[in-house]
Amino acid sequence: xxxxxxxxxxxxxxxGVGAAAAGFGHPMPWPTLVVGALICAGAALAxxxxxxxxxxxxxxxxxxxxxxEIIDKLSYAAYKSTRKPGDPRRSxxxxxxxxxxxxxxxxxxxxSAGAAFGGRWAVLFILFVHMVxxxxxxxxxxxxxxxxxxxxLLGATSAWMLADVLDSTExxxxxxxxxxxxxxxxxxxxxxxxxxxxxxxDALTVSGCPVLxxxxxxxxxxxxxxxxxxxxxxxxxxxxxxxxxxxxxCVGGVCALGALGVIG
Length: 264
Description:
Helix content is 62%, strand content 0%. By secondary structure, the chain is mainly alpha-helical. It has one domain (3-259). Helix 1 packs across helix 5, helix 2 packs across helix 8 (188-203) and helix 5 (101-138) crosses helix 7 (148-168).
């Protein structure tokens, strides 16, 4: 799928988690719901850091472009060193290492650890990165006609304000973990969820997605998971734009109302 659909599906997924949490009697404070949805929307773009034309690869200028080169080479090396006889030969690392459950779990764990041990500045950095990506994904038309600096300023301002709201609103940062130094451990959950939602979205497309790596399936270790081929679509096709995007929007809206206790 394309960036806007990935981000929208990520936000909808976290709002769904919020609705489920409310249903089980542990509702999220509204700042946690909003921040988590934005983080998830941004994280839903992260797996494409292995592709130089992706939104995330150009979102932070030369820094993200250089990181894209590194991730692409790392992903390709992982593919070559672990492929089985049934896996095809390929020349790049797109849709390999960063499109797996293991990468999502490691990325989420790194964010949780950084938030727990790095203090406020680590939390601000995590928020800044994901706010910029959320703007690029959810407001992509506006972001395309704006300068990168303006998007970065919006991301930095949003990160600072949201961190203050989480700190000042009762249980905002301690929604799931309340122990000293543990309040922000939950911040890795929307990161994992966003990455997995990205993989699921890509699995719906023609090429599929090797989300289960390194678990081997038959003669392949990089098995492209997905529905039957007649149910798949091409990224950016009318199915994604005319069907899935409105569905994500409506589902996200309903889940937000459920998470806030408006319906239920």
